[in-house]
């Protein structure tokens, strides 16, 4: 279609016609890109079909993919041509990019990981595809009103032309409800229609597929008892939004429906399009389940093999447990999925029957061993009327992985130690990664250019080569250039956020950034309480006049998570106070970024000096935000948790700010229940005064109710050890200030972090999965 800037301009102008508004320009550009990659997409699929190579399917309830237009321009290798061409025609690519709605198909780290994996699979030219749900609304849009989080529906499918392709030819039917005996009758069928999105490999011609399923009304007859209107509404709800409110039983049913819908649709198509006989499934297909939301794929695959393919149990089980592998993402008890047996038995009766049989056979096997009652309980899939999805996932898959070394160790030695003893060979670690293409090359072209000028461009394809930057750690001119890049990224961020922010942000201040979901264990509360203590100190001590810092926060709280919402409110109340005070304002400034998402992240990671990674040790499975910051030269201020441990191993303790209790210490305090938050408060005048302010309502603007925060710190005995770690956190902030004064050393730390970040590219993670778990072959799309 076009190969040079001039050809692009000609084609673009021809299509644009007289209608030169940016909306039309965006639509024209999008359509041209779709056409451009279409050919490679078709060819890649043909190649996969003809060569019969093993395919990976990555099933995930979330895919937080971010905007695609500019990423695809990079992948197609025409970013510069298009950017310059548009400019010469009077259009600004950045402005056009802003028109692309960000798909809200994910919540946080889990969904973003899935998106990074899609990118790496295609870039490494490996045959791997995503399977998920095409939520109409996705996750809510956050606005801060009066300091409170308010939630608005997101409409990412609005008028603008998307990247997807509806595939009516591949629609399948999903069975819900009904009676089993003597046959499965009275089924409420739901039609699953796939929408395919192209995942374009970087400067290759591999175009893989992200297949998102949409629920629609089936043409099959409805059971006599079911009202058609009710059925229509219930069906639309399946692909309406991510994580519907599950405080009531109808919400729980809906979440389970989503999981089964996604798994059944994906598996039915996988089996239908298999190039060889079904007993060869493990050689033709690998299926990775991203956390337990898709764990129902295990009994569903059994159902298909038994009931539709007519296999015997033993053979079906052997195939299933050599095809499916499982990634665990959390050890937080409340996040370990459990389903009510009755609910499963009613919604998916045959699947429940199969889970029951898996559990019965596994328990029969366990009877041959001497096990304590407690151990037996831990190993039960069905226990006390509940189906434990994590146990089902381990029993039914051939490999189980945690997402950072520390996390995998905790799984093996504590959370899943009974399962680990039964299946020691299944457990392995795959430390998470991030795609350096989006988080460095796309998000920070200025830094990309500096790196390439310094070490050449081989690192673009082999990010581990960022290591070569180690020789610039004490290079004054490199340091100066790096400083310039940081300054530019800070100014860009300021220009972007000040539109919605009243007081000006100082580009010379230290940018200290805390962006992630709001959760107790992520300890945004500790950060804001520390800022309040800085405020007090500046007011009370006329000799304390610290170097200016801007504290950025961003993140959403789950709609039903009151504590997290009150932390958001508290931040905004303290921000209003701090930002209005002329004395304090010149030393500390607080900015809350509304509706944190991938697009905001792309502007924030490159602008950061300090990366706040302060989770309660042992609670954050890996974290990936920590890696994005590191790759952009920010220094980690954090605890020894998740992948922070591996980051510090790479850069050295002297190139990070590490504080707080270790995971072993936290786990001991939890086990022996001998932590007393009240004692910690009593021993510290600073905490005493902070708590007094909090409890007296002084840190409230009268509208909010900080009872949940008080309740957590006092009545619930501070379960995330905010008070316990407070002083070491504050001390580390002082060390940050002192270090920043020595700019030579600071820039050197920053270079060191970038130089060591290559190992955290998801290309490394994906290659390890492929070598150790999936056994994929690189397929070159040459023709
Ligand atoms: C990377 C990312 C996350 C995960 O951040 P953590 O700090 O690892 O929790 C969440 N949301 C978005 C938009 C991201 O880009």
Would you give an account of this structure?
It is a single chain. The chain is built from 33 helices and 21 strands. The chain is an alpha/beta fold and 783 residues long. It has 3 domains: 1-51 and 68-101, no CATH class; 53-66 and 103-139 and 147-432, Glycogen Phosphorylase B (Rossmann fold); 445-662 and 719-765, Rossmann fold (3-Layer(aba) Sandwich), CATH 3.40.50. Strands 1, 2, 5, 6, 7, 8, 9, 10, 14 and 15 form a 10-stranded mixed sheet that branches. The protein has a 6-stranded parallel sheet with strand order 18-17-16-19-20-21, with helices on both faces. A 3-stranded antiparallel sheet has the order 11-13-12. Helix 6 (109-123) crosses helix 33 (762-774), helix 12 packs across helix 13 (349-366) and helix 21 (524-540) runs parallel beside helix 22 (562-580). The protein starts with a helix and ends in a 9-residue tail after the last helix. The structure holds pyridoxal-5'-phosphate. Its cofactor is pyridoxal 5'-phosphate. InterPro entries: Glycg_phsphrylas, Glyco_trans_35, Pyridoxal_P_attach_site. Phosphorylase is an important allosteric enzyme in carbohydrate metabolism. Enzymes from different sources differ in their regulatory mechanisms and in their natural substrates. However, all known phosphorylases share catalytic and structural properties.
């Amino acid at each position: 279609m076009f190969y040079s800037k001039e050809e692009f301009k000609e084609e673009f102008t021809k299509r644009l016609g007289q209608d030169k508004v940016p909306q039309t320009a965006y639509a024209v550009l999008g359509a041209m890109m779709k056409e451009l990659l279409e050919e490679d997409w078709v060819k890649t699929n043909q190649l996969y079909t003809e060569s019969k190579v093993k395919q990976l399917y990555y099933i995930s309830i979330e895919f937080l993919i971010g905007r695609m237009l500019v990423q695809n321009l990079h992948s197609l290798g025409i970013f510069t041509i298009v950017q310059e061409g548009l400019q010469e025609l009077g259009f600004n690519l950045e402005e056009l990019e802003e028109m692309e709605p960000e798909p809200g198909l994910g919540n946080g780290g889990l969904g973003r990981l899935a998106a990074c994996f899609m990118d790496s699979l295609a870039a490494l030219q490996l045959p791997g595809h995503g399977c998920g749900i095409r939520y109409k609304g996705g996750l809510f849009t956050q606005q801060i009103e009066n300091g409170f989080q308010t939630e608005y529906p997101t409409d990412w499918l609005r008028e603008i032309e998307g990247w997807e392709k509806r595939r009516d030819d591949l629609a399948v039917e999903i069975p819900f409800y009904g009676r089993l005996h003597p046959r499965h009758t009275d089924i409420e069928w739901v039609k699953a229609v796939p929408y395919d999105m192209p995942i374009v490999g970087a400067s290759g011609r591999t175009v893989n597929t992200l297949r998102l399923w949409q629920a629609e009304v089936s043409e099959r007859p409805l059971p006599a008892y079911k009202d058609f209107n009710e059925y229509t509404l219930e069906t639309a709800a399946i692909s309406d939004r991510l994580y519907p409110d599950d405080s009531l039983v109808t919400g729980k049913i809906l979440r389970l429906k989503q999981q089964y819908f996604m798994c059944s649709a994906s598996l039915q198509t996988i089996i239908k399009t298999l190039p060889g006989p079904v007993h060869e499934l493990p050689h033709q297909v690998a299926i990775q389940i991203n956390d337990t939301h898709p764990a129902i794929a295990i009994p569903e695959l059994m159902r298909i093999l038994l009931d539709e393919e007519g296999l015997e149990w033993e053979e079906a089980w052997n195939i299933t447990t050599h095809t499916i592998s499982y990634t665990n993402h959390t050890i937080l008890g409340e996040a370990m999925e459990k389903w009510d047996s009755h609910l499963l038995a009613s919604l998916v009766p045959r699947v429940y029957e199969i889970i029951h049989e898996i559990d019965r056979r596994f328990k029969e096997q366990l009877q041959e061993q001497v096990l304590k009652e407690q151990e037996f309980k831990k190993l039960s899939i069905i226990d006390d009327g509940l189906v434990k999805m994590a146990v089902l996932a381990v029993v039914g898959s051939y490999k189980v992985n945690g997402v950072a070394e520390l996390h995998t160790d905790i799984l093996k030695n504590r959370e899943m130690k009974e399962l680990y003893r039964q299946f020691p060979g299944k457990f392995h670690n795959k430390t998470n990664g991030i795609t350096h293409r989006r988080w460095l090359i796309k998000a920070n072209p200025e830094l990309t250019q500096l790196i390439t000028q310094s070490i050449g461009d081989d690192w673009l394809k082999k990010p581990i080569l960022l290591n070569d930057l180690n020789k610039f750690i004490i290079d004054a001119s490199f340091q100066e250039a790096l400083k310039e890049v940081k300054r530019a990224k800070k100014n860009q961020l300021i220009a972007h956020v000040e539109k919605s922010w009243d007081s000006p942000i100082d580009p010379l201040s230290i940018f200290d950034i805390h962006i992630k979901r709001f959760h107790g264990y992520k300890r945004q509360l500790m950060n804001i309480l520390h800022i309040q203590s800085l405020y007090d100190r500046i007011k009370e001590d006329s000799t304390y006049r610290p170097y200016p810092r801007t504290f950025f926060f961003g993140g959403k709280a789950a709609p039903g998570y009151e504590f997290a919402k009150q932390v958001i409110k508290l931040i905004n109340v303290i921000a209003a106070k701090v930002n209005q005070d002329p004395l304090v304002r010149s030393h500390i400034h607080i900015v809350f970024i509304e509706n944190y998402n991938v697009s905001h992240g792309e502007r924030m990671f490159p602008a950061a000096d300090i990366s706040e990674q302060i989770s309660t040790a042992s609670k954050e499975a890996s974290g990936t935000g920590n890696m994005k910051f590191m790759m952009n030269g920010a220094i980690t201020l954090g605890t020894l948790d998740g992948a922070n441990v591996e980051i510090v191993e790479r850069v050295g303790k002297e190139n990070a700010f590490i504080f707080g209790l270790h995971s072993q210490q936290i786990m001991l305090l939890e086990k022996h229940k001998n932590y007393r938050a009240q004692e910690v408060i009593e021993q510290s005048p600073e905490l005493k005064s902070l708590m007094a302010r909090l409890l007296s309502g002084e840190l409230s603007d009268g509208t909010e109710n900080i009872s949940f925060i008080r309740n957590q710190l006092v009545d619930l005995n501070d379960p995330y050890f905010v008070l316990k770690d407070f002083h070491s956190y504050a001390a580390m902030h002082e060390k940050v200030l002192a270090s920043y004064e020595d700019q030579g050393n600071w820039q050197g730390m920053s270079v060191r972090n970038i130089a060591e970040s290559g190992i955290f590219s998801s290309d490394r993670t994906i290659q390890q999965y492929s070598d150790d778990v999936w056994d994929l072959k690189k397929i070159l799309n040459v023709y």
